[in-house]
Amino acid sequence: MIGGGPGAFIGAVHRMAANLDGLIELVCGAFSSDAERSMITGKELFLPVTRIYGSYKEMIRTEAGLPADQRMDFVSIVTPNHLHFEPAKLALENGFHVVMDKPMTFNLDEANALKKLVESTGLIFCLTHTYTGYPMVKEARQQVLSGKLGKIRKVFVEYPQGWLSDLLEEQDQKQASWRTDPSKSGMAGAMGDIGTHAFNLAEYVSGLRTEKICADVNIVLEGRQLDDDGAVLLKFDNGASGFLVATQVASGEENNIRIRVYGENAGLEWQQEDMNSLIIKWKDKPAEILRAGAGYLSKSALHNCRTPAGHPEGWIEAFANHYRNFALTTMAKIKGIESKSEWLDFPGVEDGVRGMRFIQKVIESGKSSDKWIEY
Amino acid sequence: MIGGGPGAFIGAVHRMAANLDGLIELVCGAFSSDAERSMITGKELFLPVTRIYGSYKEMIRTEAGLPADQRMDFVSIVTPNHLHFEPAKLALENGFHVVMDKPMTFNLDEANALKKLVESTGLIFCLTHTYTGYPMVKEARQQVLSGKLGKIRKVFVEYPQGWLSDLLEEQDQKQASWRTDPSKSGMAGAMGDIGTHAFNLAEYVSGLRTEKICADVNIVLEGRQLDDDGAVLLKFDNGASGFLVATQVASGEENNIRIRVYGENAGLEWQQEDMNSLIIKWKDKPAEILRAGAGYLSKSALHNCRTPAGHPEGWIEAFANHYRNFALTTMAKIKGIESKSEWLDFPGVEDGVRGMRFIQKVIESGKSSDKWIEY
Amino acid sequence: MIGGGPGAFIGAVHRMAANLDGLIELVCGAFSSDAERSMITGKELFLPVTRIYGSYKEMIRTEAGLPADQRMDFVSIVTPNHLHFEPAKLALENGFHVVMDKPMTFNLDEANALKKLVESTGLIFCLTHTYTGYPMVKEARQQVLSGKLGKIRKVFVEYPQGWLSDLLEEQDQKQASWRTDPSKSGMAGAMGDIGTHAFNLAEYVSGLRTEKICADVNIVLEGRQLDDDGAVLLKFDNGASGFLVATQVASGEENNIRIRVYGENAGLEWQQEDMNSLIIKWKDKPAEILRAGAGYLSKSALHNCRTPAGHPEGWIEAFANHYRNFALTTMAKIKGIESKSEWLDFPGVEDGVRGMRFIQKVIESGKSSDKWIEY
Amino acid sequence: MIGGGPGAFIGAVHRMAANLDGLIELVCGAFSSDAERSMITGKELFLPVTRIYGSYKEMIRTEAGLPADQRMDFVSIVTPNHLHFEPAKLALENGFHVVMDKPMTFNLDEANALKKLVESTGLIFCLTHTYTGYPMVKEARQQVLSGKLGKIRKVFVEYPQGWLSDLLEEQDQKQASWRTDPSKSGMAGAMGDIGTHAFNLAEYVSGLRTEKICADVNIVLEGRQLDDDGAVLLKFDNGASGFLVATQVASGEENNIRIRVYGENAGLEWQQEDMNSLIIKWKDKPAEILRAGAGYLSKSALHNCRTPAGHPEGWIEAFANHYRNFALTTMAKIKGIESKSEWLDFPGVEDGVRGMRFIQKVIESGKSSDKWIEY
To answer: Which residues of chain B lie closer than 8 angstroms to D290, CB-CB?
Structure first.
């Protein structure tokens, strides 16, 4: 693991997600660019001191030099955005598979470069867009793909948060500080941090590709350097339209990402606050509530459930599904067997490129006086 | 009553709403432009045949000629949009107060003319934007006005319906036929029919005024003549931004108008599917569920509740609140006493003008390649 | 109307319910046993003073003496329980149909006597057990009757209220005072006031008849004279079991009556807080949400909807459904035509007798050390 | 780990729960009484073959013989009920701490014996009553303990499942087979399997102790040997009353355990289907929704949250909380430091004894014709 030292949030989540299914074992880490802090975290995690590194470079090079059956199998990169590309590049160049937190890179150029590298090395790359790891999100996609909803006409996705309703970055809150700092976060704030999640979810569930956007991007809190709020009108490749809302100043909201997709025959709705339900509202018969773990779900959804219906699995489990599928795919590759299609269903480098393009285009549109710009 | 004959929907609703509180009695009507059909409806409603008229002109003129204590007190106009202005004009010119279904007129010019007439006659005018009649919508407005939420930053309003997911107008469904016909509905379809409701609700609850809009207006079903779908980015006079969604092709949706308003300290949420609850999500304390009929509500909300908490009042009651407040205001005027502020809280001619301006501007923006246009 | 004077709650509700559909007109009333107070209410209701009576006896006798086309058609009795039987008896003896608030009488003997009288006169009698007036409760019954759920195995009904969590009767609150007074309410408090509603709902929806009960009946607030809380284990005639909870000391609860019925294949659930939905949870397919006003409902449910799906109808509308069906049945009888089966679907004297028997048996069981007693 | 071999459900859950926080590592197991099947599971779990045992006796004795720093630290017992006591006894006698699935033993005698053994050895014992591991259940208990609700008057707990609506035991479903077999499950079926969960939850949240019960215990499906359904009236030590429902034949229900506790000032409500919310309904102010992860929660609740509000944690996390607290307590003991009060908050042997007593008394009451029996 690279990153995830003292004060970090997402590093601990990656570790829990990786632990859950007993397929992955944390064997080494460079948890901080400060070697002492890295050591502290590493010891807390029961790692032997020889596998606790002071920098990602040291770690990748040292591990690469170990015998194949003793070295780490892959790298998880959980640092702020400006520290994604270089470690990933080095890991790939040294033959390690990569799990990366989102958004994929600092800018679109890095994203394109990374994509080339992943493709040329043939290594496995997973981008942790958590929300597509939920079984009922996978079911939603399957329902759309099955054609039961008919041609898709509308896609609404929203991701309201309230935690940046105050200038937390002035209170030295670590999460807020780097996310609102253009030198670490990149050209976007909320649109990069959560807008990309919403965008990824919309394209994943609908199976559509965005063609045009019209964005209203705002800095609501005076003194903030990056957008903390925005709304985007969308046009998709099949003619459907939609909107995407991502805001971090919706006071009182937690993390309620939600998607609705309407086709000719029905609309479906999923939201994280009721993550184990998928509601399908039919045009001319009663709405249905599909539930995680139920026997009638698609193979794709059931593969991502650990427990029978009624035993709620949450955000860590969704996160863990990406890790599990990545691990299953990686183990299959190592063993030389073919991956099942369910295993391959995790976000990859192409999702990352599309996300970075989303960031660039949304910021561009936000500044434009033209209504529509090409995605 | 003018309109509301065989096959009509909203006419019956107006009658129930007027009946409910025992303050208003239906005394006469011109229910159809076809005298025979008007007679059928009038008889079903137990009216004496002498008060069942074959046209609104006949009704207004005849009633105006009756002694003051025998004539009708006011007129309810429940016809399609193209038949709003003329009857209203005639009624006002003959000294009758007016209740009008929304949107107020066929176009903005008529709206402005009507406003002048209402102001010059001093008569009372009520526009039935139903949703602001709900007690918890009134409470929402009071919460915003109280300043507890802090400065308003975001306003989200949405009105998804699914009933026009098919070309019902080709099946001769009366409701669909006139609403999708530009000669009866006006320049807008969904944006006029339900977009104006959403717009009115947003301005009512937030207390803000719209300054700029950017609209995506769509005809989703091929062959339809008016928009059946749209989304609008909004900028308000205090700098807040927001969006408005109104669609009639969200298959499976019923009539779930919903509003969320976020201020510095909290967000509030109301939706018709849970109409007797108002949720306030505080930034740093537990969310609260305020309930219709509860003793802790504002005077404004409680005035519009008929029953104690836990006895759900619905859409007809919300509708009836406008009628009740209109009736209380009208009776006060007749008796020469002053109306209480709660009585005066019903939508009037200014709401109607703003709604018609919304229609005009949204359609204009929908056709424009500029992002923002002035409201 | 008999009762419903100053300070009353349910009288106003009966009037709104009767008004709503324009089928019934309030023509006279004895609103209080105090002639002056009766006059005050009557005038507020715009009645001519000649039809405002100082006692129910005066009213019934005077009205009976009017020509048939000028006298009232039926009587609504909305007084406390101890004043139900005598007015009903007199009304029936004078040829008037009767609408009665619940529970039907002061005790079981009166109930049996009333039943005989209704049967012998052939007049129409309606008991306002409000909750069976909801369209989705009617749909629930139809779903059970259709056999889709299979043999019924379990019936859970609960009616939690919190309004008697304090000794309101010591604060002279009119509603609390008579309901907690054995000389006015009868032998039961909560079990009579709301337990009978729950019992009626359970038998109505399940189509079963209670055979044995085991009751825990409590006076939770010290100093109170009648039960304010209770729970009852039930055995039904088909072998199913269930429970009924009725409490008025569940602090914070409003009026959330709720029923769940489980058969071999599915369970259904309805609760007043979401009164326009009926949820059916199937054993092996997705749960369904049936909605008031939707085209797929049974004829019985749709007959009791006034508006299309998505326009919430509430408690007053449910109440009004009983009035409407009573009125349609009564008008049919007057016109000598046959009533449709939907019109006849309102609670009658047999429901009243069963409710009074429930009260007697529950109180008996509450005092018994035997587990089961025969219903 | 003892048990949890091929076909088991709860064993895998224990492993995920133990894995999650990186505090516990699976080092050995006797996963089946069949040595071959134990080996299969052990290998799937990446254990070295030397630590995969053919029986619990072999495992405990062999591990006990290993050097202290190489042997397992504790035993998890996840076998059917009839195989709980003997392995636990042997483990304790050999100095191993124990985690045990519920209900604790096969009968009350074993439970009492186990309690003595735990007390005499001073070893740490954790019983996995999952539901008290949820942070919002812990918050519920803290709210009651704080006195804010006032004296508790009512406790309602229900645990409806539907999975035994058919005779799955005749289809050789492993979970159903042992649970409905008196030789493996003990004297109770549903009442032992889930009734004990509900009972534990009720006493944990309310802080009350049961004094009298009146039970209706049913075998609903013909041919079944143990109860699959029941309801219990309860009397608590402070005079409060309540009910407990546990059924496995509520067709269509998943696993929706739910508790409501009412005091003088408010009622609280928690249910697993919305596990991250705790609703407090105040008598005279708006209801509040408390949310997992929120800063305003008690220390006890926050200690059991891994993520900020809005990142749903589910059933596995609740389960893992018991493991984590058990591990923290055990590590503290090993290190000779004092446990924090939050760490000690997991179900122990006394909960187990009370659960077994509940089973015995409920079955006794179910057969009795007396209404109340002493707990």
So the answer is: 286
pLDDT score for C8: 80
Residue B6: pLDDT band (50, 70, 90) is confident
ipTM of the complex: 0.96
Say which residues have a Cβ less than 8 Å from residue B268's Cβ, sequence separation at least 6. Answer: B140, B143, B144, B149, B205, B260, B261, B262, B278, B279, B280, B281
| C311 confidence band (pLDDT: 50, 70, 90) | very high
Rounded to whole angstroms, the maximal C-alpha distance in chain A is: 64
Rounded to the nearest angstrom, the gap between the alpha carbon of residue A318 and the centroid of all alpha carbons in its chain is 10
Comparing CB atoms, the residue among B229, B283, B370 nearest residue A251 is B283
Largest CA-CA distance found in chain C, in angstroms, rounded: 64
Q: Is C26 on the interface with B (CB under 8 A)?
A: yes
Q: Which domains does chain A have, with CATH numbers?
A: 10-123 (3.40.50.720), 135-309+351-367 (3.30.360.10)
CA–chain centroid gap for C98, Å, is: 14
Of D249, D262, D282, the CB nearest to C153: D249
Of D166, D262, D369, Cβ closest to residue C250? D262
D157 phi and psi angles, rounded to 5 deg = -135, 140
Query: What is residue C198's DSSP assignment?
Result: H
Stretch 248-287 of chain B: residues touching chain C, C-beta under 8 Å = 253-256, 272-275
Q: Is the pLDDT of residue C6 over 90?
A: no
Most C-contacting residue of B274, B304, B311 (CB-CB within 10 A), to test interface: B311
The whole-angstrom separation of Cα B73 and Cα B369 is: 49
pLDDT at B307: 96
Please name the member of A16, A253, A274 whose beta carbon is closest to the beta carbon of D21.
Answer: A16
Chain B neighbours (≥3 Cβ pairs under 8 A) are: A, C, D
Percent of chain A with pLDDT over 90: 97
B residues 124-153 closer than 8 Å to A (CB) = 149-150, 153
Among the partner-chain residues D15, D22, D314, the one whose CB lies closest to the CB of A312 is D314
Tokens of D367: 């057969």
3-class secondary-structure state, position A17: helix
CA C168 to chain D, closest CA, distance in angstroms equals: 13
Q: Chain C closest CA to D134's CA: distance in Å?
A: 23
What is the DSSP-derived secondary structure letter of residue D2? B
Q: Which pairs with CB-CB distance under 8 Å and at least 24 residues apart come from B372-375?
A: B372/A369, B372/B212, B372/B213, B372/B214, B372/B235, B373/B212, B373/B213, B373/B214, B374/B211, B374/B212, B375/B210, B375/B211, B375/B212, B375/B213
Count of Cβ atoms closer than 10 Å to residue C238 Cβ: 13
Contact D316 A315 (CB under 8 A): no
Token output for B273: 């599917």
Instruction: Please tell me what DSSP assigns to residue D28.
Output: -
- How far does the CA of residue C353 sit from the closest CA of chain D (Å)? 27
Q: Is the pLDDT of residue A225 over 90?
A: yes
Q: Which pLDDT score, from 0 to 100, does residue B172 have?
A: 85
Size of the C and D interface in Cβ pairs below 8 Å: 123
pLDDT digits (tens, 9 = 90+) for D169-214: 999 898 899 999 999 999 999 999 999 999 999 999 999 999 999 9
In tens, the pLDDT along A300-353 reads 999 999 999 999 999 999 999 999 999 999 999 999 999 999 999 999 999 999
State the virtual CA torsion across A31, A32, A36, A40 in degrees, nearest 10: -40
Mean pLDDT of C52-68: 96
| pLDDT value of position D303 | 98
Phi, psi angles (nearest 5°) of residue A144: -65, -50
Residue D111: which H helix or E strand, with range?
helix D108-121
Structure tokens belonging to residue B95: 């000294």
Chains that touch D (3 or more CB pairs under 8 A): A, B, C
What is the rounded distance in angstroms from the CA atom of residue B36 to the CA atom of residue C321?
Answer: 30
